[in-house]
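SEQUENCE-TO-STRUCTURE ENTRY
===========================
What this section holds: a protein sequence and its matching fold, both as plain text.
Tokens: labelled as protein backbone structure tokens, with as many entries as the chain has residues.
Question of interest: how does this chain fold, as expressed in backbone structure tokens?
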Amino acid sequence: MQNKGILKTLFFTGITIFLFYTLWIDNIFKKETKEYSIPEKYKEIIRDHKSAIKGRQLFLQNCSGCHSVIYDNVYHSFAYTNEAFQKYRKEYRGLLPRDLYYAVFFKEFEGLKKAFGRIPPDLSTIYLARDEAYLFNFILNPQKVMEGTPMPPIMIGREEEVAKIVAYLRHVALPPEEEEKKRNIMGILMISYFIITGLLIFIKRYRIIKNER
């Protein structure tokens, strides 16, 4: 009985540590991408909050014809002149359910599908799936990164603007730096709490069983 309890404790502790490591420290589920370079001056722009604000405007001007960023209440450019969209937007306080949004603009999305082969994705969490160097190079010159992609090369020669768009995508996907630090600390504390509590429960249980003998 004692050995079985120790094995259970070690097993669940191991799973907890594994999940913590893979999801927070080294995410093994993140897609591996080819190494791309990005000049330091553009890296600084990507990490600048003011650049993210400008990047939002640039996204609306250059990217919202095909893409949305629903997490930030940014929809396709064709949506904003639609009366039904404005009505639902008020009803849902800005954030429409994805299914409803696609249903309202079914024809428009079918048009995008015909033009590009598939509906261009929402980019709310793209920064989490692809690193900033990949995004910078892809937005700047899509064909160079993914030959045959239907995405048009409208940002060639506009490196600074591209960096600001990436800064915006980073800002949407990640919390502010201070908030991220707080969340990491909170996560470590929570994991530690569960591990310590599990060990204390095991010790208490072991003592009860021992006294009963």
Observations:
- The chain has eleven helices and no strands.
- The chain has a mean pLDDT of 85.
- The first helix runs from residue 2 to 25.
